[in-house]
């Protein structure tokens, strides 16, 4: 099959003009075209040395003293303040710890409890019907625990659902970006609709934080959660984070009160008294090794003075170029893009429907192009602007085309 002339050359020119291109050197990469940062981000090159210091000096030499002398105890809030600007939040509203699933549970139950303070008739929870399954499982459990009815609704139908039964709805759990298709949902409009109905909203930012602007403070989001091992490159199993809007923090009633969120954590009181501020989102002893690996990974944003706006601009350019290359290289009818063409509706991944997607992705990986597969028929390609270049994009589309004509 002949290939259109010029796309490889265009990729070279785009890479030469890319203001973020130098950041690629800050990551551990090889000849593989890595387009799976929407599942696990690449390793920032300086992180191993920092982790070694945590293990050998802070743990090995200082031992228990590191809780104070190395700042272990305050790490969840300190690192939360470093994530805050990446999601459009002022300091003092983000705490890092636990998994995304645990934080979804804390946030959703707390949202229902706040709604119940304002009206006992609120007995329904809406959940994104297209959500990552765990969010659905957690939402079902949270609804059962709080005596609510759970209603799965696709995001586009949330405004009409609120209009129909807004006085009954306590909380709404939504994903900013659909994990399968890469569709970006309208956070400002949906948040406003939830608030107009008198309910509280919880946003899952797993597939948006670090890839595009979020604007939590600007848009008055109540609560949000997210992971740190995707576009934030925190490492496998790195802890998640919880955002609680400042004016709601005194009302945040966690269903998992632990000694780390107690007003006097070392007082060992038999009765629980919550701490002030975002600390209320803590539960138990933080996972220091992965927490401090995440803190080191975030240095890339600070030291290079990377703006989320610049990352978003490159993300859209990368995904636009990939879709162009796929259109030029891949035989007609072999794949179908599930990702919206409109920039306002697109995250930082491209999802392609393909009949034999599982086998195709296996062959792509064997040929040095790493994406991932979601049953039954979706090829996912994630574009992390900090280290993915336009030559990566062109090569991935070219290898995909050759794989499909096999």
Describe the structure.
This protein is an alpha/beta fold and 406 residues long. 38% of the residues lie in helices and 13% in strands. It has 13 helices and 13 strands. β12 and β13 (378-382) form a beta hairpin. α1 packs antiparallel against α13 and α11 (308-329) packs parallel to α13. The radius of gyration is 22 Å and the shape is globular. The termini are close together. The relative contact order is 0.18.
Describe, in short, the structure shown.
The chain is built from 13 helices and 13 strands.
Contiguous uncertain segments of 5+ residues? none
In N-to-C order, the SSE pattern is: HEHHHEHEHEHEHEEEHHHEEHEEEH
Find the structural class using helix and strand composition.
Answer: alpha/beta
Spatial extent as radius of gyration = 22 Å
Mean pLDDT score, rounded? 96
The count of helical stretches stands at 13
Oligomer: single chain
Overall shape? globular
In angstroms, what separates the terminal alpha carbons? 11 Å
Largest beta sheet, briefly? 7 strands, mixed
Give the spatial strand order of the biggest sheet. Answer: 2-8-7-6-5-3-4
Number of strands: 13
| Amount of beta strand | 5-15%
Q: How much helicity do the residues have?
A: 25-40%
């Amino acid at each position: 099959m002949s290939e259109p002339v010029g796309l490889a050359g265009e990729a070279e020119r785009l890479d030469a003009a890319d203001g973020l291109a130098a950041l690629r050197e800050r990551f551990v990469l090889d000849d593989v075209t890595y387009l799976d940062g929407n599942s696990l981000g690449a390793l920032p090159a300086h992180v191993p040395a920092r982790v070694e210091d945590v293990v050998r000096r802070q743990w090995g030499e200082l031992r228990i003293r590191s809780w104070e002398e190395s700042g272990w105890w305050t790490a969840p809030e300190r690192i939360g303040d470093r994530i805050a600007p990446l999601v459009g939040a002022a300091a003092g509203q983000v705490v890092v710890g636990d998994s995304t699933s645990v934080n979804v549970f804390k946030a959703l139950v707390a949202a229902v409890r706040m709604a119940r303070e304002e009206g006992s008739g609120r007995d329904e929870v809406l959940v994104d019907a297209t959500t990552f399954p765990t969010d659905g499982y957690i939402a079902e459990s949270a609804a059962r625990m709080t005596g609510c009815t759970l209603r799965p609704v696709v995001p586009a139908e949330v405004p009409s659902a609120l209009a129909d039964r807004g006085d009954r709805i306590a909380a709404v759990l939504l994903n900013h970006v659909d994990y399968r298709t890469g569709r970006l949902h309208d956070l400002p409009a949906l948040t406003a609709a939830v608030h107009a109905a008198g309910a509280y909203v919880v946003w899952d930012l797993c597939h948006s934080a670090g890839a595009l602007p979020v604007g939590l403070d600007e848009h008055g989001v109540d609560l949000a959660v997210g992971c740190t091992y995707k576009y934030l490159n925190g490492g496998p199993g790195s802890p998640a984070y919880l955002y609680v809007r400042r004016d709601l923090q005194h009302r945040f009633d966690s269903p998992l009160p632990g000694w780390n969120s107690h007003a006097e954590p070392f007082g060992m009181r038999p009765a629980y008294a919550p701490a002030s501020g975002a600390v209320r989102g803590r539960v138990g002893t933080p996972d220091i090794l992965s927490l401090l690996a995440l803190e080191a990974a975030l240095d890339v944003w600070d030291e290079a003075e990377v703006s989320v706006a610049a990352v978003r601009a490159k993300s859209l350019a990368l995904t636009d170029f990939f879709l162009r290359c796929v259109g030029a290289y891949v035989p007609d009818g072999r794949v179908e893009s599930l990702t919206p063409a409109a920039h306002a509706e697109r995250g930082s991944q491209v999802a392609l429907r393909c009949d034999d997607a599982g086998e195709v992705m296996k062959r792509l990986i064997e040929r040095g192009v790493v994406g991932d597969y979601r049953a039954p028929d979706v090829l996912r390609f994630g574009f992390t602007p900090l280290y993915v270049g336009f030559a990566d994009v062109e090569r991935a589309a070219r290898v995909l085309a050759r794989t499909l004509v096999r």
